[in-house]
Design brief:
11 helices, 2 domains, alpha/beta, 5-stranded mixed β-sheet, Metallo-beta-lactamase, Chain A
Length: 359
Amino acid sequence: MQLFRMLSVFSLAAVGLACGHSHAHDEHEVVARDSIKIAPGPSDTQIQFAPLPSTADPVTINTTLGYFVGDLGGGVHWVTDGSYSNMFLVSTHGVIVVDAPPTIGHKLLYAIGNTTHLPVTHLVYSHFHADHIGGASLFNASHPTIIAHAETFSLLASPRDPLRPLPHVTFEDKYTVRVGNQTLELSYHGPNHTPGNLFMYAPAQRIALLIDVVFPGWAPFAELGIASFVPGLTAAHDVLLSFDFDVFVAGHVGRLGTKQDVLLQKKYIEDLHDSCASAINGGFNVTTAIGPTVAANKGNVWAEFKAYLRVAAQTCADNTTSRWLGVLGAADVFAFENAYRMVDSLRVEYDVLGPFSVS
């Protein structure tokens, strides 16, 4: 923190971000970004974000039903409400369901019931997050065997949530679900979005599932999909591409994905990584950028470092976003949050420390 201490002699007037852009960022802007995602100004409800490209086009949702069921062939179906999605496999002896998003909720029961009269015998948890399995208790009546990774069991064990019943079967590396004529292969390759987040693959139908990592046609949700381990999230793209699939179910957005979607987001993540590393490694003048914060907050190292992180993230977001507008949907909406998460990851998970590295 010695670098910040030295900055305390600067006046509030001596601020300006040297990041190669035509616009300057003043200290008011840095503070404003606590509540404004991209730039100072009105609330998000008033910001006009860039138009969505055709890559983000969803399937058409029946407004009366409120959901869409797509037949992927070979007894496999996917369900979406336009924001969340999941999948189920109809076998000769019962139904395997992957996840139970609460936003789809009872509509998932209707989707399955309108497809087959066979009971749900197995329920797979992709990971422990409630927004993907918070509807699991809706299947309690059919008493399905719940399968998940051991990490997911541990994360659900305390505190207990009756809406997410504990798994009955857990595993560490690989597990194959076989019900009648259907096979679903589960594997774990380390933490990415969360610990315990599974790669899932239906080999007969050449369908892959990985939840909350790739967002087909869209830039990632905030903080890289609220990723718990960014290096694992980055590596997950190559792991996913090692599967021989034609169709990809992502758990979010109202469309399916392909290998091309995975490749495209991999390039986005790599670009974000490189842009944020450049920002940390001299992409802006630290003394000029945070001098006013130091001067206004004597001895408050949290305030000093917060200003540094936010300017680094904004520099990265500014440098990255323009390349992805019109390529991925909503590339501007969470540009700052995604850059902020990458900056933090680079500092603590990759050892890219810029002015705070060992000299």
